[in-house]
Amino acid sequence: MVNNKIAVIAKKEFFDSLKSKTFLIIFGIFLVLMLVSSITGINNYDKQLDQYQKLQADTQGIEENDVFSYFPEPKLTAVIFREMVSNIGIIGAIMAIILGYNAVSGEKERGNLKLLLSYPLYREDVINGKFLGKIGVLILTLAITSILSIACALVMGVNLTGSDLISITLFMVISTLYLITFLGISIFFSTVSKNGTSSILYSFMFWVVSTMIITSFSAVVSDAMVPIDDTVFYGGKVTSTDSFSITFSNTDGENVSEDGGESSFNKYQKKWKIQNTIESFLSPTQNYEQISGAVLGDDFVNIMVTDSSIQSETDMLEVLSGKISNIISMLVWAIISLIATYLVFMRQDIR
Fold it and tell me: Which segments cross the bilayer (predicted)?
């Protein structure tokens, strides 16, 4: 009986959300961006694959420890979905906020909440129904996005393997969990706010802090802890000899050996780890990007976050286990917001 009540509320929230003009506009923008990202990613993959094949042909016979032998073959899912990760991180979060900002505050403004609670319902049934209905909308949105992306890849002649489809599926699952995080935050602010304007303002303030301010703060802290002379890289030049050895030159004209470059890279790696640690505790968006990069096989993420500069293909379970701390950190915000919503809503005086 309780499940039936929750299902009725969830169904109503699901269809009400799909009828919302504001949501439909955001959904349309999101869908267009995803489609453009897919087409752009496929074109980039074709170009990078051609460049990789040419490089392999030009460097045949070079010793394995040579720097040019380290260029990896482009990963299909990483290249195609790289822009999509950024779009979901930004536009997807906004869409989740739009879905939840008036879940409770809107009912208060319209005077429907008091009427709703006059029925034989527990307050937690109302929250559960609203959450499930709006989660259903997010799942539908990402399902449509993934189908369009796969269809676009097939039409443009890209062959997707079984491992590629597994990576895409896991990517969409991680994306759903990420959007649920911002949905939970938005519903929490909708519960504590008296009107929708305050709710959406607080939700966007959280989004700005977690995606932009935290990133800037972590960069400042990492710069202070690991100072690096950027002139080695940004003011230098690379020259090659017959043996493909590399020499860096700084702005003073002084040569920096390959060992010096490697040392600087290690500093950058250490700096990245400090910045990543801070962001992992405070930013759902950064955690989402780290997890998605690992699932899709993004080489840049693998190189900067792990101890080895060259990553071999690993089992997907190993990839996820290596990112378990990021997954937990991302979901903590959703869990905290859900618990806080329950506590606040149970004690509110609804008039």
Answer: 21-42, 84-104, 137-159, 165-189, 201-221, 324-345
